[in-house]
Design goal:
The chain has 1 helix and 6 strands, in the order αββββββ.
């Protein structure tokens, strides 16, 4: 009698259709979990799973200190890092002026910034942008920022007005102001002409 009931139960179970079951796979920390589907039919079990993985891109930027610049990169590509980065190169920016650090420059003039070859003692050129990308225009290592143009027409010799430009009002480094040309002789240069926009250069 017992064997007959067990046989009946097995026949009923084999004829039943079970609903589809969806299993959610939790993220284990190494990626994004997927879903798995387990289905049963007629006593046969089949399982299918799908998963996705995530990838991440990491970037890092090293920043150097002490004026080495470039995140302590070998700027002149000579195989030696700047002394400011623990190396032995006293002139990593290749401007032929040793940096003011340790025994590199026992007597001046010394390079005040070894990360830009435009920054060096005696730099004659003027620039409209700061060398540090912020607010430092001291390209000639004088510890001062000298503007190229002022509000006064420059007198150069007896018969020349020098650069021939002057601002209507004081204009800071990198800023744009209204300027005019300069004319005159014998020590009497003065502004003249139509005002125009001019960006201040400094070093």
């Amino acid at each position: 009698m017992a064997l007959g009931r067990l046989a009946s139960l097995l026949l009923v179970a084999g004829a039943c259709t079970f609903p589809e079951i969806t299993v959610i796979l939790e993220d284990g920390g190494g990626g994004t979990g997927g879903t798995g589907t387990v289905s049963t039919s007629g006593g046969t079990t089949a399982a299918t799973t799908s998963s996705t993985s995530s990838s991440s891109t990491a970037s890092s930027a090293s920043s150097g200190g002490g004026g080495a610049g470039g995140g302590c990169v070998d700027l002149d590509e000579d195989g030696e890092d700047s002394v400011l980065c623990g190396g032995t190169d006293c002139d990593d920016d290749g401007d032929d002026v040793p940096v003011d650090s340790g025994d590199c420059c026992p007597s001046g003039p010394c390079d005040c910034y070894d990360g830009d070859d435009r920054v060096r003692p005696g730099q004659p050129a003027y620039f409209t942008e700061a060398w540090d990308g912020a607010d430092d225009y001291d390209y000639d290592c004088s510890s001062f920022e000298e503007p190229r143009y002022t509000t006064t027409c420059p007198q150069q010799g007896v018969l020349s007005c020098g650069e021939g430009k002057a601002y209507a009002s004081s204009t800071p480094c990198g800023q744009t102001g209204q300027a005019q040309g300069c004319t005159g002789i014998l020590g009497s240069c003065s502004k003249s002409g139509t005002p125009y926009s001019l960006q201040q250069e400094c070093h």
